[in-house]
User: What shape does this take?
Amino acid sequence: MKWLSRAIAAIVDAFADVVDAILTAVVEFASDLIEMIGHGLGAFFRWLADYAEEGDHGNNAAALRWIGNVIESAFGLVATAVKAVGSFAIDLITGAIRIAGGILSLNGKLFLEGLDDTVSGFVGAVAIIFLKFVELLQTIVPVEQPGRPLTPAERDMLRRIYRHSLSLGAIRVNDRTSGFFSVNPWPFTLGNTIFLKGENVDPADPAGNPFVLVHESVHVWQYQHEGSSYIGRALGNAAFEPATNTNGGWLVDIAAGRLRWTDFGKEAQAWFVEDVFTVGQLTSGSATASGHGVFFDADGAGNIGSFVWSSVDHTALANDAVVAIRRRVNFRLSQFL
Ligand SMILES: [Zn+2]
Assistant: This one.
């Protein structure tokens, strides 16, 4: 009967994934729309502020800018809450499907996966709503201003990695003040906002560290496709598996039997893409280039990518990761911005 139990578990698991994908798309679309309206209103008030400044009403300009920033931040909080509550509800549904399937098929692994969906969904939703609320308070005070959109060079770099699976128009980069978020010096990502904390990520600057933006953009991809539950999982990774939270940290996942990128922890996933970006190679004819994301230009025909880490060839794993990343469908309207 073991085969039957395994077959039921596989079907239930696949069914839960389909339910997850459909509901996530709906929540994604709605949350993105709210966030975009916020960005639009913020931009409108800042435009009014520029206009007031030209007309020599400097005081009005500062007030208008503040109003725009607060409105933008408030819409960001609402959009996040819609997505967080929505994705937690989805995690409850898929978690229940897996738990029920795990009991029916006496499959302990599926049962635990269901429990994990539910717990990380809850932790992630609470964490992101709280942090977005902090962001709004910081904008009111104001010790924080809304982030900027990606520069054309940053967009080009990320487009090579994600193609259309990541909504670049939704991303905001905060390279100014981050208030409370500066308790530690490490860049971090909150939903679609990347806090650089002074890190220079300019792809055109030889002194820049664009791989930092690449790493953080993986967390945005996780947020866009998996909802806030990724935060619960990332916090779990950082607390229980700190060795995965560094360059090559994904080797810990491989040693633990998690052999595919999709099975890696959330930090390991981000470090893996960063590492492929940094040392991956591309061979075109007799010329081989390395680093700067050239691996992602591989086309399987004239341009062949390779990824060697600590003298071990992980090209197959890297190719598998690229396919897994790019095949996710992006339901956000902001991708057209
Ligand atoms: Zn990270």
